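pls design
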């Protein structure tokens, strides 16, 4: 029998330490200590070894502070996780914890494996009974998207709840680390490091660019946008774009067509998921975005969802903002301007369709 295992059998607390998060560099000292105490009674051995262990390793607890400012502590790594938002589902899989997810909210369509998991209802109308039946030891909630009363009820039932509400691109990396900690997945830190490296490179590439005033449309009827508190606005700022409706108090405010016309955006971005022709804007050639052909389509299922893929969408967004910026400096000829607003093969000007209902829960 290996020496470490022999000493561990003689010292129950050391066996516990070996199974938890005790750093390997500390093991030799504690093995020696326990070996010297093998003739002691078990309670005395346990007491002395507990005193010798650093406070952070005496108990195998896992603690993080969520986006709501609440400290969440688990006694052991989570093994059964329920995700209450599509963006949370993506973060769990990206952090290497996908195999521990036992339930997801509707529209959790990425990655493909998430589509095969049991649904626990929509983000705003959760199936509490289904969640309870799944016996989760960790629930990832969406602070601004879930029904607050239902989340409070889950907490009251004793389930550990992590509030996820990334408002900056950096928050995505931090959440990946938190998920890695709560699930004992090293992939969480790896994914966070890779995300930060790509983010830093993008920030350096677009630093100091001439500002472009934009209107970012998330739904056509009623006409809706996002304010500066939303993570999409952080991506816009990175690209050198100014959100014309960023100062509004609501996270996703409803606005009028007239207010957009009055704001005179240099570019208009539509993140709706269907094919709308740009008729509502094409009839307004005095709006700079229309006159210059700066009408862009971006995939809202990726861009508006605070997961790792959002950085890919931000790369596309920055290229589109750059295109609009160049047209502001050197406007195209009239014939080019007229054709540039029409449908074309370029995916940056792919057009969208106007649905009759409000946007689906995509985060």
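designed seq:
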């Amino acid at each position: 029998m290996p020496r470490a295992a022999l000493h561990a059998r003689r010292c129950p607390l050391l066996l516990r330490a070996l199974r938890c998060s005790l750093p390997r560099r500390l093991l030799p000292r504690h093995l020696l200590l326990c070996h010297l105490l093998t003739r002691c009674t078990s309670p005395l051995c346990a007491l002395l070894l507990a005193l010798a262990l650093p406070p952070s390793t005496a108990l195998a607890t896992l603690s993080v502070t969520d986006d709501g400012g609440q400290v969440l502590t688990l006694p052991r790594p989570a093994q059964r996780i329920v995700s209450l938002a599509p963006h949370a589902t993506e973060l769990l899989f990206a952090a290497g914890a996908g195999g521990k997810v036992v339930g997801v909210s509707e529209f959790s369509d990425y990655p493909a494996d998430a589509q095969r998991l049991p649904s626990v209802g929509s983000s705003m109308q959760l199936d509490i009974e289904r969640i309870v039946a799944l016996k989760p030891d960790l629930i990832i909630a969406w602070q601004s998207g879930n029904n607050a009363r239902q989340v409070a009820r889950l907490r009251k039932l004793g389930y550990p709840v992590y509030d996820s509400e990334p408002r900056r691109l950096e928050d995505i990396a931090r959440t990946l680390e938190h998920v890695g900690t709560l699930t004992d997945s090293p992939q969480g830190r790896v994914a966070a490091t890779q995300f930060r490296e790509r983010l830093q490179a993008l920030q350096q590439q677009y630093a100091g660019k001439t500002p472009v005033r934009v209107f970012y449309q998330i739904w056509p009827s009623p006409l809706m946008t996002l304010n500066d508190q939303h993570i999409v606005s952080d991506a816009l700022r990175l690209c050198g774009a100014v959100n014309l409706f960023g100062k509004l108090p609501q996270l996703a405010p409803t606005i009028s067509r007239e207010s957009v016309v009055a704001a005179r955006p240099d570019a208009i971005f539509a993140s709706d998921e269907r094919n709308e022709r740009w008729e509502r804007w094409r009839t307004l050639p005095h709006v700079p975005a229309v006159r210059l052909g700066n009408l862009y389509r971006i995939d809202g299922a990726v861009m508006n969802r605070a997961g790792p893929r959002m950085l890919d969408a931000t790369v596309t967004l920055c290229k589109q903002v750059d295109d609009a910026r160049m047209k502001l400096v050197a406007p195209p000829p009239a014939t080019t301007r007229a054709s540039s607003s029409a449908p074309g093969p370029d995916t940056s000007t792919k057009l969208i369709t106007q649905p009759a209902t409000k946007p689906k829960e995509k985060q």
